[in-house]
């Protein structure tokens, strides 16, 4: 479906894109939660204009080439259901920019939200960690955020996917953190024999089989191996928790993101004193365990 020729200004294209998104019932949740914010991001990115200066440009007329560029973006986002981050090749967590493409899931993490508060009060007594591990690192976003949050810490980041680690390597280089972050390929703790950490973070696959079958088209464009984790979504979480104790220093912490799967996690990990952490955007999407809980 081609865009109508009457679209002349930034305002026109924003209205049109929001309308097309609503008409097609596109899915959000991969960086944006509603149509207007995503449309502003896509239009301003395509025009190489700062999103925060929208008011200054909203009635600017577009060239024919710019209109063609936006028409292509609308087709990709609405007709082909391509996530915005894959269209632009970037995603943001707070003020941190990351390269993304279909080799990695699009960065979004409740752990990142908790990191902005320094995981308080859980790190208050022990102080900043000297060693951090990010399991299932994907794009490397949490490892990079941890390196910024804890400038004296050594950070390891592991992923099973060699393709994901290629993207993570680009991001680590973009942030000039090659001397702070070591990227390792392997299955969970397999490449980490003998290594121990003060803080282990993981945003592992945790989508249930039923939820995988019901995913919107946008989410189906992400790597299935980074999302699905068996009937109850806990296949990776069970293994991760079972092995984490031998890789935590005394007093160390394990934090695992499971989204809306609190009940599934509690059923999969009976007898463990899971501490559930809330964020500004969700109730209990992350659980915490101490090294002493895993002995």
Keywords:
295 residues, alpha/beta, Helicase, Ruva Protein, domain 3, Rossmann fold, 9 strands
Outline of the structure:
The protein has 295 residues and is α/β, with parallel strands linked by helices.
Could you characterize the architecture of this molecule?
The chain folds into two domains: 10-88, Helicase, Ruva Protein, domain 3, CATH 1.10.8.10; 90-294, Rossmann fold (3-Layer(aba) Sandwich). By secondary structure, the protein is an alpha/beta fold. The strands form two sheets. The protein has a seven-stranded mixed beta sheet, sandwiched between helices. The protein contains twelve helices and nine strands. It has helices spanning 10-24, 35-46, 54-57, 64-79, 84-88, 110-116, 141-149, 162-174, 209-213, 217-220, 235-244, 262-268, and strands at 90-93, 96-99, 131-135, 154-159, 181-185, 197-202, 248-257, 275-277, 286-290. The protein is elongated and about 65 Å long. Helix content is 36%, strand content 16%. Helix 1 (10-24) crosses helix 2 and helix 6 (110-116) packs parallel to helix 7 (141-149).
Overall tally of domains: 2
Rg over alpha carbons: 21 Å
Classify the fold: give the CATH topology of the largest domain.
Answer: Rossmann fold
Query: Into which percent range does the helicity of residues fall?
Result: 25-40%
Mean pLDDT comes to: 95
Number of helices: 12
User: What fraction strand?
Assistant: 15-25%
Q: For the terminal residues, how far apart are their CA atoms?
A: 60 Å
- CATH architecture annotation name of the largest domain: 3-Layer(aba) Sandwich
